[in-house]
Structure formats: structure tokens, C-alpha cells
Amino acid sequence: MMSGEFDCIVIGAGVQGSFTAYELAKRKKKTLLLEQFVLPHTRGSSHGQTRIIRKAYDHDFYSRMMQECYQLWAQLEREAGVRLYRQTGLVVMGPENGRSYQLYKKTLQNNKVPMVVLTRENFNQHIPGVVLAEGDAAVVDVTAGVLYADRALKTVQDQFQKLGGVIRDKEKVTAIQPGPVVTVSTSAGVYRAKSVVIAAGPWTNKLLVHTGLQLPLETVKINVCYWKEKVPGSYDVKQRFPCFLQTESEEVHHIYGLPSNEYPGMMKICYHMGSKADPDQRDQQTNTSDIDILRRFVRRSLPGLLPEPAVVESCMYTLTPDDHFVLDRHPTYQNIIIGAGFSGHGFKFGPIIGLILCELSLGEVPSFDLSPFRIGRFQPKPKSAL
Ligand SMILES: Cc1cc2nc3c(=O)[nH]c(=O)nc-3n(C[C@H](O)[C@H](O)[C@H](O)COP(=O)(O)OP(=O)(O)OC[C@H]3O[C@@H](n4cnc5c(N)ncnc54)[C@H](O)[C@@H]3O)c2cc1C
Asked: What angle do CA 371, 376, 381 make, to 5 degrees?
């Protein structure tokens, strides 16, 4: 049986737990990072070679957080001497008068993000190989690009270990006993710490059971689809082909794509929603209705791709009812911190989330306004007196 005493135990070595552990170690806190699977693994939400990084958002607070987050990514790149980001730009397309498209455009303008509004006339000069749908408009977030996800995860875990942090993988947390000192039992040992951060992705509610709390989280399986170029190189990252985001009407989720990178000659294009799945039984979910939506989109908008995915991989989203994150202290136990519900858009925020969860676990005032991310927003509001 392993054992030990720590300042903080972080549960989950996905992107959020790994950045939290790294921030704690930077502040010389004795930190243990626990992971249930052998690292690296492909069962949660942080695997795969690429993710989009962007300031284009439909809410100002995310755009503002990203301003600082870019600097933190660059800092990690310098510190580790590893390239983690490649600027490609991101073209946001959508019905010109649609609420969603207008919100993205307004947020870019409000936050003074370098941007280019494309006209129907010059669209193909800038974005060849894409057909802008009838009635759609397009705007480019120039600062956006690709994050090298697997590499980023390994880099931050390596930096954590260089700072003296301890990672124990293949060690599943089986119980959490709250108290002024929290006791965490795993498949291999029992550890104690002044505070615990739960960053368990789709498994969050399975862990929170031990603390008497359940959050309104829904876990869904995403089909990650790669589409083959008819002429190799037409949509390649090296040709500076951009990432894209196709917004639709309110009821329909967006579609996003990244230039060919991990599989040469294949673009990654996904639907921003999947089907309900227990993370421990992910592969039993076989619904592919999202792929039908993608086929229609590829046929309509990307004529240089074969409209049938050549590779389909799996990943998980953990959704909150409003798609905003959960970054908060446990309502009953102030030394248990929760980072969850990243709703399919949390990777780019990794360095900032790590900073915030570290600050919360040390009892510090967080660097950002966390009101959109509080657990209290899920509780029914008291009826006002008549
Ligand atoms: C297909 C896809 C595309 C995406 N694209 C983007 C994008 O372009 N841009 C972007 O910003 N974001 C994107 N995201 C979202 C982003 O990847 C996630 O928000 C982020 O990875 C969530 O990280 P996490 O650390 O919360 O969860 P996870 O990566 O799931 O990590 C949680 C970890 O906790 C461990 N764990 C759970 N329970 C236990 C236990 N009992 N004991 C020990 N360990 C435990 C798990 O094994 C896991 O490793 C995408 C996600 C997917 C699936």
C-alpha cells in the first residue's frame, strides 16, 4: 500500500488536472496527481493531436480569459522549449442575420481581436475550397490556430514532474473522505492532503458521490471524423488553411474543422454534439446521426473532400445545462475544489483553468470573475415573495 501526505491532491491527469498540478508545483506546494489509467490514454477528453485555440466566442468573458491564456501557452512553450501552437486563423461562418454569428462577430469587435470580415466576393480568394452557403457571412479571427494537444499534455506533465510533482497513473481513486485534512483512497494506497482538486472530466459525478454532491452534468460520446482530400494538400495546415466554425440556427449545434495535420491529407471535422454515454461504456454507444449531418455539410461546403469519413475516433464531452464550466469550491467542503463541465471547449483554457483551480485550492482570491462558473447557478432560485 502506498501512502503519503501532500499539500494538495489533484484527481485526473487530463488537461485541466495536469495544469492545476503544474501551477501548484510552481508555487512549491507538495502535489500528487492521480490518474486511473496508464498515461497517455485515449478514454477521456484530452487525447488526440490537435485542438482549436481561438478568441472568437459568443460570450465576452471567454474572449477576455483567452487574451491572458495565449500568454500562458507561450510562456509554457518558452519554458519547455516545445512548440505547442500554430497560428492558422479561424473562419467563423453562419447565417448573416443569425444570433449566433452576430454574437461571435460582436465579441471579436468588443475585445479588439485582430479580425477580417470577408465579403461574398473575396471569400474564395482567402478561403479556397470552401463554399459559403447562401445567406451566410464570414469573419476571420486572425489570432486563432491549432494547439498540439497530446504534446501539450505531455509537456505540462513533464514540467510538473521537473518541479518535484508526483504523478501516479493506473491508480483509480475509490473513495474521498472529506475533513480538514482530506483522505483519498485509491486502488493502490491511501493519501492525505490539505485540499483536493477534482478534475475528473466525464467521471466527475462518480467521484462527487463520495462527497454527497451531484452536478447536472451530461456525458456524451463524440465521433471524431477525418475526411480525405480529393487532391492531397488542398486543406493542409502547411498551406496555412484555417480552422473553421460553422454556426447554424439556435436549435442546431455548430460544426468545426481543423486543417489536415495528424493524418496527412485528411481534415478533422466534427459536430459539436454527440450521444449520451457512460464514460466506462463509451464504445457501446454506436449512434452515428451526427455523421449524417457532417456528410451533408461536407458535400455542400467542402467539395474538395470525399463526403465519407475515412477515420472515426472517439472522445467525450462533459456538458453543463448552459455549456459554461464549473469552477468552484464544493458547497459543503471548502477544501474540495471542482473543475468540470468543460462542455467540449475547455482545452484552450487549460493554463487559465489550472491557475484558477490552484488559487481556489490555496484559498486565494481567484484572478478571474467566476460568477458564470459557480455551482450555485444550478440550484433552483427561491420564489420571490408576492
Ligand atoms: C472531439 C473533441 C474535440 C474538442 N475540441 C476542442 C477544441 O477544439 N478546443 C478546445 O478548447 N476544446 C476542445 N475540446 C474539449 C477539451 O478537449 C476538453 O474540454 C478537455 O480536454 C477536458 O479536460 P478534462 O481534464 O476536464 O477531462 P479529461 O481529459 O477527461 O481528464 C479527466 C481525467 O480524470 C481521470 N479520472 C477520472 N476519474 C478518476 C478516478 N476515479 N481516479 C483517477 N483518475 C480519474 C480520467 O481518467 C481522465 O484522465 C474537445 C473535446 C473533444 C472530445
From this structure: 115
Mutate to test the pocket of ligand 1, among 347, 348, 352 (most ligand atoms within 8 A of CB): 347
Residue nearest to atom 27 of ligand 1 (CA): 201
Full pLDDT tens readout for the chain, 386 residues: 889 999 999 999 999 999 999 999 999 999 999 999 999 999 999 999 999 999 999 999 999 999 999 999 999 999 999 999 999 999 999 999 999 999 999 999 999 999 999 999 999 999 999 999 999 999 999 999 999 999 999 999 999 999 999 999 999 999 999 999 999 999 999 999 999 999 999 999 999 999 999 999 999 999 999 999 999 999 998 888 999 999 986 667 899 999 999 899 999 999 999 999 999 999 999 999 999 999 999 999 999 999 999 999 999 999 999 999 999 999 999 999 999 999 999 999 999 999 999 999 999 999 999 999 999 999 866 555 44
How far is Cα 287 from Cα 327, in angstroms, rounded to an integer? 31
Residue 12 alpha carbon to ligand 1 centre in Å: 9
Which domains, from first to last, does the chain contain?
2-46+150-216+322-378 (3.50.50.60), 90-142+218-317 (3.30.9.10)
Nearest atom in ligand 1 to 202's CA: 30
What is the identity of the amino acid at 318? T
User: How far is Cα of residue 62 from the mean position of the Cα atoms in its chain?
Assistant: 12
Cβ(34) – ligand 1 distance below 6 Å: yes
Read off φ and ψ for residue 49, nearest 5 degrees.
-80, -25
Mutate to test the pocket of ligand 1, among 45, 55, 290, 349 (most ligand atoms within 8 A of CB): 45
Strand 243-246 relative to strand 90-95: parallel, antiparallel, unpaired? parallel
Q: Assess whether the C-beta atom of 19 lies below 6 angstroms from ligand 1.
A: no
Report whether residue 224 contacts ligand 1, using a CB cutoff of 6 Å: yes
